[in-house]
């Protein structure tokens, strides 16, 4: 007979999910109420306001999609693109490749701008692609590439998109609440994120936000959005400001309590203070990593504080190290992805988990394992 599942008490320092704060877990266990209960509708309003603050936007269409980050990605592309559209996709890691998949599955064409993994997206290459493709309707890129630990200059890339009259689509799954992200000031038209990274919330929700320009495009589509579940025209009736709050799908009520609590924690700390905390603990972590004789693959100016890609020294069985950390230290770090598999460990300092205790734990665990 199967038994109830009691997970081990791990410290999560991989690429996500990150450690969920006990406050968020406590919120998750509160009694479930109906998703159209007036109290829940009040909570939805509050979540929307808190998300707008976290994204630094006044966008009316800001909400958590009831599914993980990949669904937020799919929601953005499937609503904004139609068959025959051309989109410039900048790729410098795994998740830019997923953007390409999404574009192509919408029947659109992806013009790829490639940069080496470990480097940020090069604005000059984007500009050349924009000049060569005056019929492109959008530019898409990943702000924080979780597969490599690289931050791209979202502000510069969005400015170029705007200059060439393209919509700017940004993957902020790993950046939201971890590094500076200013949706309105930078002119982002559509952004999606995840709850399991720097929000320290449970996985399974994807905050998204659309500008007025993006909404106009969605409302004026020639074809219906292929996905019923992700069609923002329908979701607007459930989440929109003056909406009827009419039934669309059964919201994951308890996950929303969790998201609300995690957003409250961001508000209480202050967004800028949260960015600074990530940076502070990242600097300490890097100093420790270098003292262990290890190094990061990304140059200091493009490093993500919340995701550190540490080069694996020659002769090390990287999977055995991760296994040992998990079994003996209850500590999870991440393996490399794609072309960086077996070349790096990905060590996250995300959200609630970006703290001194975790920095010291990881450095001692790694140091003693590698001795
Ligand atoms: N985009 C980026 C940059 C990510 O790091 C991830 C997940 O790690 C995703 C998209 C997909 O999110 P999810 O795994 O929640 O579907």
TrEMBL record:
Binding site for substrate: 346
Keyword Transferase found: yes
Cofactor(s) recorded in Swiss-Prot or TrEMBL: pyridoxal 5'-phosphate
Record keywords, A-Z: Aminotransferase, Pyridoxal phosphate, Transferase
MF-aspect GO terms: alanine-glyoxylate transaminase activity; L-serine-pyruvate transaminase activity
Positions where N6-(pyridoxal phosphate)lysine occurs in the chain: 197
GO biological process, one term: glycine biosynthetic process, by transamination of glyoxylate
Family per similarity comment: Belongs to the class-V pyridoxal-phosphate-dependent aminotransferase family.
Protein name, entry field: Alanine--glyoxylate aminotransferase
Source organism (scientific name): Pseudohongiella acticola
């Amino acid at each position: 007979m199967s038994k109830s599942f009691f997970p081990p008490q791990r410290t999560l320092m991989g690429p996500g999910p990150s450690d969920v704060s006990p406050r968020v877990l406590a919120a998750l266990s509160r009694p479930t109420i109906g998703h159209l209960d007036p109290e829940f509708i009040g909570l939805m309003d509050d979540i929307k306001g808190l998300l707008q603050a976290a994204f630094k936007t006044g966008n009316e269409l800001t909400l958590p999609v009831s599914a993980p980050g990949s669904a937020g990605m799919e929601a953005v592309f499937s609503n904004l693109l139609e068959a025959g559209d051309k989109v410039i996709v900048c790729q410098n890691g795994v998740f830019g490749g997923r953007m390409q998949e999404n574009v192509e599955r919408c029947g659109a064409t992806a013009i790829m701008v490639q940069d080496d993994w470990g480097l940020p997206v090069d604005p000059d290459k984007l500009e050349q692609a924009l000049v060569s493709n005056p019929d492109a309707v959008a530019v898409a890129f990943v702000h924080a590439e979780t597969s490599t630990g690289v931050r791209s200059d979202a502000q510069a890339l969005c400015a170029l998109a705007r200059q060439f009259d393209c919509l700017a689509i940004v993957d902020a799954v790993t950046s939201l609440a971890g590094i500076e992200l200013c949706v309105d000031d930078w002119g982002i038209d559509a952004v999606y994120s995840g709850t399991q990274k720097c929000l320290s919330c449970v996985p399974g929700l994807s905050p998204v936000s659309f500008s007025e320009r993006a909404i106009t495009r969605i409302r004026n589509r020639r074809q219906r959005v292929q996905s019923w579940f992700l069609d923002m025209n329908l979701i607007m009736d459930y989440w929109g400001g003056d909406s009827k709050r009419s039934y669309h799908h059964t919201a994951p009520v308890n996950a929303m309590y969790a998201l609300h609590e995690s957003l409250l924690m961001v508000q209480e700390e202050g967004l800028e203070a949260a960015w600074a905390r990530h940076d502070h603990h990242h600097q300490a972590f890097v100093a420790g990593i270098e003292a262990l004789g290890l190094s990061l693959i990304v140059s200091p100016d493009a490093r993500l504080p919340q995701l550190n890609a540490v080069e694996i020294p020659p002769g090390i069985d990287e999977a055995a190290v991760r296994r040992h950390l998990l079994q003996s230290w209850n500590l999870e770090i991440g393996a490399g992805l794609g072309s960086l598999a077996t070349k790096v460990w990905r060590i996250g300092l995300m959200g609630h988990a970006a703290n001194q205790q975790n920095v010291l734990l990881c450095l001692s665990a790694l140091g003693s394992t590698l001795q």
